[in-house]
Amino acid sequence: MPSPDPEVRAVLDRASVALLLRDAAMEVSGVSAARVRLRRRRAHVRAVVAFGDPAESRAALTDTLTVRTDRLGLAWTPRLRVRVTPSPHWLPRPEARPDADGAADGPADLGGGGAGPAEALPLVHEDRSDGPAPNGSDGVRSDDREEGAL
Questions:
Q1: Dist. CA 43–CA 80, nearest whole Å
Q2: Interior angle at CA 88, CA 108 and CA 47, nearest 5
Q3: What is the rounded CA–CA span in Å between residue 110 and residue 150?
Q4: Are the C-beta atoms of 50 and 32 separated by less than 8 Å?
Q5: Rounded to an integer, what distance in angstroms lies between the CA atom of residue 41 and that of residue 32?
């Protein structure tokens, strides 16, 4: 920041500026990780987007970082190079699809067709105590038989 007194001078090294820019990048909605490498003239910013549109996140990230570098009041303003990649678990937002009755799904509806969570998901564990195991065994391990555990 510019000082009111021209004789006062503060110094930030590149690592500190990179850390401040990384913190600013992490404040952008959707960004889950960020790395900043600061050179003499350019700041290379790599960000990982966990949710949302990567293009919108890139624009918000560029705006945020531009404002932050201006607020720092550096003697030189680094040119920003921003690279945004989606996280491995990122899924694009589902497009509005019409249902059978012609109504479009809203953003909160993920196309489940009105089925609740219990109806939409299969059972993880089924009780099979009504008969023998599918492989023909009686369900007791041979180690347990020998030790007399049953």
A1: 5
A2: 95
A3: 49
A4: yes
A5: 26
How is 93-142 classified by DSSP, letter by letter?
A: PPPP-B-TTSPBP-TT--S-TT--HHHHSPPS----TTS--TTSS-S--H
pLDDT-derived band at 9 (thresholds 50, 70, 90) equals confident
- Comparison of pLDDT for 94 and 9, the residue scoring more: 9
**Whether 36 contacts 65, CB under 8 Å:** no
The answer to whether 61 and 24 are in contact (CB under 8 A) is no
How far is Cα 11 from Cα 3, in angstroms, rounded to an integer?
12
* pLDDT mean over 73-82: 90
